[in-house]
Amino acid sequence: MDSDRMRFSGWLPGQLSPEGPRYLALLNALEQDVNEGRLTEGSRLPAHRELAQQLGLSVGTVAKAYQEAEQRGIISGRVGQGTFVRRRTLGRDEASAMREPVNMALNVPAHGRETEILSGLLAEVSSIRDLAPLLDYHPHGGIRQHREIIAASVPGGSFTVDPARLFLCNGAQHAIDIALRLVARPGDSILVDSLTYSGFKAIAAANHLTLIPVAMDGEGADPDALEIACRASGAKVFYCMPTLQSPTARTMSLTRRRRIAELADKLDLTIIEDDVYGFFLPERPMPLTEFVPERSFYITSYSKCVAPGFRLGTLTVPSVFTEKTELLLHASSWFVAPMLSEMAVRLIESGKLDELVRERRQQALDRYRVFSGIFPAAERLKFPPFYGWLPLPPEWSAVDFASAARRHNILVTPPIASTVDDADPGAIRVCLGGPKDLTELSNALYTLNEVITRPPLNVFSVA
Questions:
Q1: CA–CA dist 209, 142 (Å, integer)
Q2: What pLDDT is recorded for position 224?
């Protein structure tokens, strides 16, 4: 510790979060220290320049954090005296709202009949006379009969899944991780949409992979941009979501899918296809995997159509990877809990899965109608998921809009979660499944609409 820091006597935050803008990391640390009592009412905070020097930040970054904190009522400035922690007196409604923000940042399905249906199935499974077989060791890819039934339930149209190439995983996240470990090594480059699934970014970071952004258009990844990025980077793996891409909700046409498949053959490109949202369409679009089965990994999941805690996903691999997939499943989880796959099979065979899927589609449609009615500039989707892609006026950055929404106790997905090249997307994802009902959803969306129609606060620029 240097002598300047030793002489410093004011407040210093703990470790700042590495995620997101620096001013938000500082603001969150300040708010946490106030909430947890490390800073009390009347505590004097360091001057902007003093704190900036201690933390290695720009003065503008500290100023913006302080300004935001003052707007939230956490601190107050006194001319000629400094900046101090203040005590806020909240009304009952405001205090309740502060404790329970409307979470439109986390993509979850709306509550429906899943608890009732799963409770009944769990009771059935637990009352099986001979439960012992489900509690024993099983093949790493899952029980053979379970794989056969699940494989038959996945496809649509002429697309079929070979149960010998389908493996059960602990959700889609596990399936993606296995697929990446099969085709990439630390230091490799992976092609992704310029706005991609945040969970994939986390897996790539954990595996020390470099993401190469591919420009998008109204259908998702642009084929010409894909070819250019592939040749320039030398990357040989492309992760994509052709149906209801997260976060933009864009869907590739059949023509686009054929073109991407042709490029995969031409460029010797392996595809990791994430199809967790395909069930929202009454007829699941033809997967890319259908066109290039020997160079494509196909992933589905039950978390969006059943429940987030129902951690069961599927990974269909090219035939040459079956043995290696068994090995990685052995190493990572041994096998999926057989009681969970037994419940999935019972969902399928009883028709309850179809009931849940129909309910999910209707819930998503009802909520998206509210969203598109309040935000007519958003794309109209015939078969929407539980999220919408909200275009922002030019004067709003996605970061500032997320911050403004938070001041109104509404959480929306910050753009840094999905961006690959750090460019401002000019839009933001709004998740529609979290609010408890259509009334709460409508109220939250009207609040966001009020925010978006006013100019953003004139804040300091940050380094």
A1: 29
A2: 98
One domain for residues 266 and 391: no
Helix (H, G, I), strand (E, B) or coil at 78: strand
Q: Which residue has the tokens 């596990």?
A: 174
Residue 141 maps to which CATH number? 3.40.640.10
Kindly indicate the confidence band of residue 158, based on its pLDDT and cuts at 50, 70 and 90: low
Cross-sheet strand order for the sheet of 82-85:
44-45, 82-85, 75-78
Choose the final residue of a domain: 350, 384, 399. 350
Closest of 414, 400, 381 to residue 451, by C-alpha:
400
Instruction: Tokens for 192, please give them.
Output: 């992704």
For the chain, give the number of residues: 463
pLDDT level of residue 80 (50, 70, 90 thresholds) = low
User: 399, 353, 397, 406: which is closest to 118 by C-alpha?
Assistant: 353
Q: Residue 445: which CATH number? A: 3.90.1150.10
Pair (304, 424) in one structural domain: no
Alpha helices (H) in 36-159, listed in sequence order: 48-55, 59-71, 92-99, 114-126, 144-153
What's the average model confidence in pLDDT over 271-293? 94
Question: Is 458 within the bounds of a domain?
Answer: no
Q: What is the dihedral of CA 181, 183, 187, 193, to 10 degrees?
A: -100
- Report the SS3 class of residue 367: helix
Mean pLDDT of 56-62: 86
Per-residue pLDDT tens over the stretch 318-337: 999 999 999 999 999 999 99
- Is residue 423 predicted with pLDDT exceeding 90? no
Domain that holds residue 444: 102-108+354-453
What pTM did the predictor assign?
0.78
Tokens 């998740």 -> residue: 431
Choose one of 320, 335, 350: the last residue of a domain: 350
Q: Is residue 121 part of a domain?
A: no
Mean pLDDT over the full length of the chain: 89
Do 387 and 286 share a domain, yes or no?
no
Residues 362 and 344 in one domain: no
Q: Which residues pair with 431 in a beta bridge?
A: 387
Instruction: Indicate the DSSP class of residue 154.
Output: S
Q: Is residue 462 domain-resident?
A: no
- What is the rounded average pLDDT of the residues 140-168? 89
